[in-house]
Amino acid sequence: MRLITTLTSIFLIQVLTTASLESQVNPQRQWPGYRGHMASGVLDNANLPESFNIQKNINIRWKTPVPGLGISSPVIWGDRLFITTAVSESDREGFKPGIYGDVASVKDESVHEWIVYCIDKNTGKIIWERTSYKGIPKVKRHPKSTHANSSVATDGNYVVAFFGSEGLYCYDMNGKLQWQKSFGVLKSVFFSMENAEWEFASSPIIHEGVLVIQCDVLENSFVAAYDVKSGKELWKMERDEYPGWCTPNIYEHNGRKYVAVNGYKHRGGYDFTTGKEIWRMSGGGDIQIPAPILGEGLIYFNSAHGRTSPIMAVRTGAAGDITLNEGETANSGIAWYIPRGGSYMHTLLLYRNRLYNVNWNGIVDCLDPATGKEIYNGKLGNTKSFVASPVASDGRIYIVDEEGTLYIIQDGDKFNLLAEIPLGGICMTAPAITDGMIYFRTQSQLIAVGRK
Question: What's the structural domain count of the chain?
Answer without folding.
Answer: 1
